[in-house]
Amino acid sequence: MPRRKWSAEIVISAIKRLRKQGKPLNPSYISKHYKSLETAAYSYCGSWKSAVEAAGIPYDSVVYWRRKPTNKKWSAEAVVSKIKELHKQGTPLNPGYVQEHYSTLETAARTYCGGWEKAVEAAGIPYSSVLTRTRRSKDSIVDRIKALAKDHPLNARSVEKIDPNLAKAARKYFGGWDEALKASGFDPSKIRLKPVARKWSKAAIVAEIKARSKAGKSNAWRVVNRENRSLYAAAHKHFGKKGWAKARVLAGLPPVDPHPSQKWNRKTVIAAIKQLHKEGTPLHVFNMTSHSHLYRIYSGAYKVFGTWGNALREAGLDYSKIRRLKPWGWWTKQRVITTIRSLERSGVRLNSKTIHSDYSDLFAGSIKEFGSWSQAVEAAGINYQVHTTRWSTKTWLRRMRPEEYMNLLDSTHRHAQTRRRKAR
Prior knowledge:
Layout: H1 8-20, H2 27-33, H3 35-45, H4 48-54, H5 76-88, H6 95-101, H7 103-112, H8 116-122, H9 127-130, H10 138-148, H11 156-162, H12 164-174, H13 177-183, H14 188-191, H15 202-214, H16 221-227, H17 229-239, H18 243-250, H19 266-279, H20 285-288, H21 292-305, H22 308-314, H23 319-322, H24 333-345, H25 352-358, H26 360-370, H27 373-379, H28 384-388, H29 393-398, H30 402-423
């Protein structure tokens, strides 16, 4: 949902729009995809259910599952009667099925009969007859393996996916899956999956290097050793000492890639700067020196032109508009005051730590013009003590505007999703 100032009317309007678009309105989907809307619904309508009903939509129609309300009063006799009724209907009475489909009955059985087993026995049904778990034996395992062999592979990894209980029983009764296969008349060595190792030759190595170059992939030894370890190892095996360098030469490449700084000249530096400017990359010094792939261009420009500013001018760019820090002498008292007031209107805390970290040129200009940062803030007509007060988290949240609060929730939600994806 777009960021906005919420109200009860806007929440209801957004719900109606989602309904019209055919979007699910169950709480799980909304919490995952429209967190800000859910939060606003709780803030202005009390709950998601109240917001949905206020939009004229029956809440039961948007939830995937709701436990049917029941006023049934349980007793030992009622539990036994219900079990007999289910048994007569042919309903499975094993604990797993009952817990999933008749949880209230299972809970009542534990409360009034001392457990599900006792309740089943009290209904005159042998408890062993309702259990679905089959007792394993060596013969049953062998029979199951032979039956499985008709339609499925018998390697351990496949069996673990198809029938994990069979694999577990085989380890218990035979000591391992290979032993169970032997007892079933199968040869484990013919069934076991083996990685297919590529057979390398000198010609195959050279051909693979040429293919990587043609595909635009790097043939630097560090990259190849990470992406295709078998190729790198085969080169050393077939070509001996410095095998990778020798293989590169046979493929028509230099023994090693030239150092990045060796390729820079006026033409390549200017072309790289223009490309970065076209892509919208910030070209101030701080950004260029903070990323390794940009620092190569920065260092090359420094060696060719002497300074980064000279390189930008040669590329036809105005360095004064690009540089992050203002030149010394640019700041005047009026510019300092105007900038401070603008920051204060934007909601920036004007304590010295924040300004020194994020607006170092303003901080330095303020000290030059006013003697200290606090005097510059006071000269702008702002109470400096307000910005130096330490706020608790509760106070900080209370002072936030509604749109800032919703933006914070959205940012926190996105950050949590990113962490979950990285943890997988």
